[in-house]
């Protein structure tokens, strides 16, 4: 088994918000996927099946207690827990897009949108904590250009003759 990835010091609420959106959004997406299958349009039926599959993948990763009677779910959840946040973000975002592309209806957009939102939250967690005000001021004052040069377009720029 893999050990969980080292987490940066994130607020506790941010971790639980991403898990809650993943679990709740997965349940809603699964219900709306069933609703999408109640149509005669073949692409919307395929989109509904894709949305239900995506919802099951997200639920089994974020809340394995919901699927505890399926053998491989605990191993899969542990494996996903060991991934970096940016990997989870990319996976969830990519997983949410095909259903919306196949059948851009309200149920598909809302259901897959919640899975997409979970991916966005993990992406924000991957970016990490914002620096303090003093760090931001110091970074703005110290240029990272070679030789610590100032930008000639802003400082001391002279107008060009016409």
Automatic annotation (TrEMBL):
Keywords: Calcium, Calcium channel, Calcium transport, Cell projection, Cytoplasmic vesicle, Ion channel, Ion transport, Membrane, Transmembrane, Transmembrane helix, Transport
Spans annotated as Disordered: 141-162
Subcellular location: Cytoplasmic vesicle, Secretory vesicle, Synaptic vesicle membrane; Presynaptic cell membrane
Gene Ontology MF, one: calcium channel activity
Species the sequence originates in: Cherax quadricarinatus (Australian red claw crayfish)
Topology within the bilayer: Multi-pass membrane protein
UniProt-recorded name of the protein: Calcium channel flower
Listed InterPro entries: TVP18/Ca-channel_flower
């Amino acid at each position: 088994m893999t050990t969980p990835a080292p987490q940066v010091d994130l607020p506790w609420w941010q971790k639980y918000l991403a898990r809650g959106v993943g679990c709740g959004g997965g349940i809603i997406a699964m219900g709306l996927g069933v609703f999408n299958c109640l149509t005669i349009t073949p692409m919307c039926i395929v989109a509904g099946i894709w949305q239900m599959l995506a919802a099951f993948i997200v639920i089994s990763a974020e809340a394995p207690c919901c699927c505890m009677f399926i053998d491989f779910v605990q191993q899969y959840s542990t494996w996903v827990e060991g991934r970096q946040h940016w990997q989870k973000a990319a996976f969830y975002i990519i997983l949410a897009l095909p259903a919306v592309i196949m059948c851009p209806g309200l149920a598909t957009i809302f259901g897959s949108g919640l899975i997409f939102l979970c991916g966005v939250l993990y992406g924000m967690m991957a970016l990490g904590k914002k620096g303090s005000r003093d760090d931001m001021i110091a970074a703005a004052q110290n240029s990272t250009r070679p030789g610590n040069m100032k930008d000639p377009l802003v400082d001391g720029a002279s107008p060009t003759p016409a």
